Amino acid sequence: RTSLLLSSAGQPPKTVLVTSSQPSEGKTTTVVNIATMLAQTGADVLVLDCDLRRPRVHAHFGLPNSRGVTNYLSGDSQVADLVQTYERMPNLKVITSGPVPPNAAELLGSEEMRKLLYLLTENFTHIIIDSPPAISFTDASILSTMVDGVMLVVHGGRSSRAVVRRAKQQLQDVGAHIFGIVLNNVKLEGTDYYYYSGYYSGYYSDDDTAPEGAATAGERPGAG
Question: Where are the domains of the chain?
């Protein structure tokens, strides 16, 4: 996952949106893993929970979620008041979602959201953003226009090719730059691989049963 980001042409991306085609594909876990691995390189990393529908980042890090993104976007808090530190890794910071709002898409599409990202890019090397599934809501498409690129998380045993293609197309329709696809719960043997957008991406065969395991777009069978 991290190699996809660090191998990007030119400077490594500062803002990366992580989404999925549908719920329960492991996108939040992917966000946490990417952020942790990047922080282990010594970079200053921030995780931003923009899944204002079903936020889970705070639970993964064991942090309170009384205030967060929604408080800033609503004008109730300053950025400095919202940044929390992950105690096990001092250079890894988190801004949780805050209270779930009734107007998530409106808040995420606001000028305040763009301002928030600008302020954060001034202070962090990488910002990894969690968002709702791309097909379920417009939030991911809205956010994808504000970031350097998108990683699409796919659950091999749950997501059909048609659903994944639809999510990918929906993002591309708004001009999103898709860095690659992260495959969760995928069996490498017997999987058809093909070259896609500069990365090797595999979709799990609909006829097979996926065991526990994961593969990342960019990895080929047998890769270490």
Answer: 2-216
